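In response to the reviewer comment on reproducibility (Comment 2.3), we provide here a single inverse folding case reported in full, input and output, so that an independent group could reproduce the run without further information from us. The structure tokens appear first.
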């Protein structure tokens, strides 16, 4: 969507639905025990019947999406057949695109009036935060200029380096050595699985904007069951490389 917006030369905006899950209507009968500070001591053996969804309820996400989808479709939006969280609306030769991720919504249009109309439409139905230009979404930092759009994860990179105690490590200019040959068991000691898997998961999310580490992360990701010291050393090399190149980004002209 970001690439398409850059190609069509329009900027993306973002709004946030406050307490999104609380807007979902439940089809099933759901009961919950009396929550702390809301107990009825005279009827302590009673439970509450929910009218709407709550956070951490299994049905909450579906209930919220169903209500939002119905609202948008009733207001002349079309749901994408490829992505159920993508909605489109046309007005003459102009196009409005809306992408939903739970309560976070990004949108853009070939005509600014369509963006204003969408913002007002959402505010008429839900409690919303202020509309602003898209700059941070799901850990991605986005900078939109008149010439290009840049996506990067600089804050995420710094957070990773700090989280895995690599702040004092020596930077290196490649994510993997051309002589590296990783095997399932090379005889080196085993390392903690939980730590290794956490490092791989964190690095996999970073590949959203860092295509230069896709191969090395994928290679290390093959050994998440009973990882060895050599595997951990390879992962730490990727982090050392990220420390050397924290500011790399994707540019969409």
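Designed residues, in position order:
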């Amino acid at each position: 969507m970001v690439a398409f917006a850059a190609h069509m030369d329009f900027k993306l905006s973002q709004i946030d639905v406050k307490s999104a899950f609380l807007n979902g209507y439940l089809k099933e009968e759901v009961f919950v025990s009396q929550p702390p500070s809301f107990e009825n001591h005279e009827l302590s053996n009673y439970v509450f019947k929910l009218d709407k969804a709550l956070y951490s309820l299994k049905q909450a996400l579906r209930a919220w999406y169903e209500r939002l989808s119905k609202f948008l479709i009733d207001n002349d939006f079309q749901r994408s057949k490829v992505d159920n969280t993508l909605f489109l609306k046309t007005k003459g030769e102009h196009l409005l695109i809306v992408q939903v991720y739970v309560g976070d919504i990004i949108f853009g249009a070939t005509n600014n009036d369509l963006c204003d109309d969408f913002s007002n439409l959402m505010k008429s139905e839900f409690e919303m935060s202020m509309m602003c230009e898209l700059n941070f979404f799901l850990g991605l930092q986005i900078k939109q200029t008149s010439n290009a759009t840049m996506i990067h994860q600089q804050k995420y990179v710094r957070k990773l380096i700090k989280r895995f105690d690599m702040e004092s490590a020596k930077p290196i200019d490649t994510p993997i050595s051309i002589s590296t040959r990783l095997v399932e068991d090379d005889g080196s000691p085993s390392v903690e699985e939980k730590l290794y898997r956490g490092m791989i998961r964190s690095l996999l999310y970073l590949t959203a904007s860092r295509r230069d580490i896709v191969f090395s992360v994928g290679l290390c990701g093959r050994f998440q069951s009973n990882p060895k010291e050599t595997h951990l050393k390879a992962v730490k090399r990727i982090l050392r490389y990220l420390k050397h190149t924290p500011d790399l980004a994707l540019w969409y002209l």
